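Sample intake sheet
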Amino acid sequence: MPDHAIDAIFEIFTWVGLGAGAFVAIVAVIAKLADGTWVPAQAVIADDPDGRVARWFGHEGRVGSARLTHEQHKELAGRETADVYVRLGRDDRMRLTKGSPLVRLLMWLAIGLGAVGALAAVGSIVMLFVR
């Protein structure tokens, strides 16, 4: 493969990696801000005619309630209480993890793309000195 083709490949991977990584990182920050604040709470798991429900006392003293999703139902099977995270200011939002899986995915994607771009930039510089 000619040297100019390798240089072009490194250049493309550098710009695409760093550019797309920066873009995805910005999207991840926006998603994190849109996700809001989640605080820990102790929920009581109860059976309801329509399925299982988690109920908790919020920080403002109000009672929150949310129907369990299929995944939450499987993870909390047989339990009467659970440590959960609830959305601050909302009485109907609950999840089992503090961070959002979408935000976590976007951040790892941004890190991966940025790493590809950085490695391509280093490869390009190395090729410059090899000649």
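Comment: The chain has a mean pLDDT of 89. The radius of gyration is 23 Å.
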